[in-house]
Design a protein that fits this description.
- It is a single chain.
- This protein is an all-alpha fold.
- Helices cover about 65% and strands about 0% of the residues.
- Helix 2 runs antiparallel to helix 3 (about 40-65).
- The protein is extended.
Amino acid sequence: QRQMCIRDRVYNIQGAGILICGFGGALGWFFYLIARQWVGSIVAAFLAAVAITVFSEWMARVRRCPVTGYLQVALLPLVPGSGIYYSMRYCVAGDTQQFLSTLLNTFGMAASLAIGAMLTSTVLRLLLPPSGGVGTEAEPLPTGAETSAPALPLPSGAGGLDVQPLSRAALNRI
């Protein structure tokens, strides 16, 4: 029996997906280091997040897998862990100026990663058609005789509310 590591349990990444995620992280660092030569660390993190998101969306479409595994694993090396550590170190030492400076830079890095990923993912999903992969379209609920099936009862005392379960016919109208 094979031992499962955290990436297997949380992200469900196996086989070639592990190498693809590693390449995504390397791609992010490459873009970060190149952009860092011309712009600040916050803008460089934003550009790296854009590159990682484009790569993750592309790989998710090619491999017909959820994008979150590729995106989260590839963004993880850019998370400013050292900034958090040094912020707390300066706070405990009483160096308020260094603490605030490091903390704001850390928050800026984290926010630029999040905004870069969300903005790019949103734009790509608006511009590109669905890939037909996992979770693109839901199956319609059955109609006709199958809608008269009894609804499942809810447990009593559902938060003190008188909640009635929806039937299949009611779900079809939604």
